[in-house]
Task: structure prediction
Amino acid sequence: MNTDRAECGHLTEFSAQLAQQLDAYLTFQHPDAQQQAHIWRSALEQPIPEDGIGIRAVLAELGNWVIPNGSPIPNPGCTAFITTGATTIGALATLAGSVAAPQRLGLTAFNFLEELSLDWMARMFELPEGMKGLYSSGGSVANLVALGAARQRAFEGLGIDPARDGINRPCRLYASAECHHSVQRAAAVLGMGRRSVCEIETDAQGRMCPAALRRQLMADQETNLLPVAVIANAGSTNRGAIDPLREVGETARAYGVWFHVDGAYGLPGILDPRIRHLYAGLELADSVIVDPHKWLGAPVGIGATYVKDRELLNRAFTQEAATYLEGACTTEGVAHSMDNLGIPYADMGVELSAPSRGAVVWALIREIGVAGLRERIVRHNSLARHVAERAQEHPNLQVVSEPTLSICGFRYLGERWDDLNELNRRIHRRMVQRGLAIPSTTVVNGALAIRPCFVGARTTLKEADELVDEVLIVGQEVAKTNDEAAG
Result:
């Protein structure tokens, strides 16, 4: 009898070997991948094998060449962008799902946790009563799903089914000028076009101006544009700004427009009692998104969309009947987990095949509870405030963007530099290459700033202080080099 060449068991032995390699990686003692790229590239760049080398040899190559040359993102000193390395339970729950529930379907414990974990997050983040969710691959798809529901409702109000028949008139989406670019992409994918996104001006703190929103909505009443959604930030990517949700939501409601809140990064900030009041008005939302792969510590690839009426998602994204499923399931006499597919998530979004993400989120919350997550968020927000305080106290530093959440924008001041943006660009590039503290940059009101975002479970006050120290050390080096070249 022929058997498959692939190993399909013995996880105890092989996962233990892999775990040792990953634990070694998590000490962060290895050099950056680019520093020895010629070595691992030459080891890995082989012709496609006619005959395989077996699982033990593959694990050895993973341990020798791949894992040690992975990403610096899980390093606690990496505060660039808004992403992080998974916590241990997140990685283990992902492994469990990939083996025991490779598809998001069936009446299994994994699928039960899809709905339970979504409901847990809804309660934890104080979402409107009755909101139901759907997992997807991240904030970009989560926004797409939410705006798909908004488009469906707007056109159904005209007696049109846009999912079935397409759109027949130009649309308008109203978003903060600091909205995530996935909003424009969602508009394009949904057939409304990127130019349908009208950027509403923001104040000095990067928050949407409700008066400007009202003026635009009023002006558009005189056109044939169909208002589809007003999109507010609950923690912008650029600097963590939280729009005035109540004013924006009440304005959207007054004009009969869908109110969407992008909380991909910042929604968990509601757990910080110091800023909870900034989320007042969240109860007005028709849809909300959040990314567990950010502050919750899940592996990348988990976002969630919540809507007040999940049937809208079904109408917006249904695949309609499939012949290969006809007769495959039943609602009567269910006695086996494959008798029924369970909640039809595949008809509520853009993914048919999808992993069991709910078990991961369930495990993350079950491990540390709401109290543990609150402690993390308060710690990270405090780190951003600490960085701002140090910058305010040092004569060579300047705060460019005061923190609301866990993002702080600041820059180095060089006495003999006319172009401070170029100076800080050089400082940032050298910091990245040194590899101790790796923030990103952003531009705020024309000023380029060093921009750390604290979301990693491994990140502490030590890394926040090291980042400020690095800016000062590297800033002095760059400034001195320039002085010597000029003199």
